[in-house]
Design a protein that fits this description.
Layout (H helix, E strand, L loop, with lengths): L1 H32 L13 E8 L2 E8 L2 E4 L5 E2 L2 H13 L2 E4 L24 E7 L6 E8 L6 E5 L5 E4 L25 E8 L4 E5 L15 H9 L11 E5 L15 H10 L5 E4 L2 H8 L2 E11 L2 E13 L5 E7 L4 E4 L2 H7 L10 H5 L1
Antiparallel strand pairs: 1-2, 1-6, 2-3, 3-4, 5-9, 6-7, 7-8, 8-9, 10-11, 10-14, 11-12, 13-17, 14-15, 15-16, 16-17
């Protein structure tokens, strides 16, 4: 009897040991899978196409001649910084938890591709490379409630995951365009000509500072000759001043609101950001002629060479009483939207830079 009981106990212990070992092995397998790169097989160097699709909306970003462009925005350049962060997040994404394999439960994680339910519909991300060798389709879902990451699954596999990244998946093309309009810094600019549609015009510049001849030496004749032939930004004043005004007589007795106010205009120009882009057409070009506000011409230096760049600002009042603000560049093919704030910073008349006469009298 005791032998029989002993056999039963040993059998139970053996079964428990086998089950425990199996569970530990499974757990070890799961842990070894976790924290692996989600997209380890993608050839990131060969990547040349990104497509985001959700609920009938599609965003396509493609590389053309080594430049990333927004297809839905007529090939306008993509925001390099934003795109770089997006791709780096994808590259860094690691699995931190295994989730459901059941298709019927995908909607709980926002991983369903059923367009009938926008609340639970995932975003289908397609990555394509040269010759489609690195084509990958990934479904991106909801962010985890505890902010640990985002739910995702490979379209070719039933398993879903929680990854350690939270990706920006806005499908609005205007949210992905390159906002920066000027690849210049303040010291590159030497002069700005402003011509308003009203007829008023003025010019600001950074005067060339005269060099004291007593301080010059002949130690480096070649270098001095080169600097004399090329008026670089280094021998100009650090601040902009008024050079010309069509109505200069009105301001002869007035003081500037502050000494560096014209330098502020230059910084405002360089800080203008595009918020949307569309191709210029005969229709909108004709319409813009009636809404022209001002034309600017920037004179600047690159590698010692003097160059110019012209752009025009427009203000269009629509039938619904809304107002649109635009900028176009000479020789450019795009009509670019800008903010009301950027527009107002640039179209100030010259009188806005001077103190009112009654203020000076006080």
């Amino acid at each position: 009897m005791k032998l029989k009981q002993l056999i039963i106990v040993l059998s139970i212990a053996l079964i428990a040991l086998i089950l425990g070992s199996s569970l530990l092995a499974d757990k070890h397998g799961e842990q070894s899978f976790e924290h692996k790169a989600l997209l380890s097989d993608v050839d990131w160097q060969a990547l040349n196409g990104i497509e985001l699709e959700q609920g009938g909306k599609t965003l396509v970003i493609e590389k053309v001649l080594q430049e990333w462009q927004i297809a839905s925005k007529d090939g306008y350049p993509a925001d390099k910084e934003k795109l770089s962060k997006f791709l780096q997040s994808l590259k860094d994404a690691k699995v931190i938890e295994l989730k459901t394999k059941l298709e019927k439960n995908y909607h709980r994680l926002g991983l369903s591709l059923d367009d009938s339910d926008n609340q639970s519909s995932g975003v289908l991300l397609s990555l394509s490379g040269a010759g489609d060798k690195s084509a990958v389709e990934l479904v991106l879902g909801n962010n985890a409630k505890d902010n640990r990451g985002q739910y995702a699954r490979l379209l070719s596999e039933p398993q879903s995951y929680l990854i350690d990244q939270t990706l920006d998946i806005n499908l609005d093309g205007s949210d992905w365009i390159e906002p920066q309009l000027f690849e210049l810094v303040y010291n590159d600019v030497s002069q700005i000509d402003v011509n308003f549609a009203s007829g008023e015009s003025f010019v600001i510049h950074r005067p060339i500072e005269e060099t004291n001849e007593d301080e010059s030496t002949n130690d480096n004749v070649d270098q001095n000759t080169e600097q004399n032939n090329e008026q670089t930004s280094e021998n100009r004043s650090s601040e902009f001043v008024l050079k010309f005004a069509s109505n200069a007589a009105e301001f002869e007795q007035l003081a500037l609101k502050y000494d560096t106010i014209f330098s502020g205009l230059v910084r405002n120009v360089l800080n203008v950001k595009a918020t949307d882009a569309q191709l210029l057409s005969d229709t909108n070009e004709e319409l813009l002629k009636e809404n022209k506000a001002a034309t600017f011409e920037l004179s600047y230096q690159v590698s010692g060479a003097e160059k110019t760049q012209s752009f025009t600002l427009y203000k269009q009042e629509l039938e619904d009483d809304s107002i649109k603000y635009y900028i176009t560049f000479s020789g450019g093919k795009y009509l670019l939207s800008i903010s009301e704030f950027n527009y107002n910073q640039l179209v100030k008349p010259l009188s806005d830079y001077y103190q009112a006469e009654e203020t000076q009298e006080e």
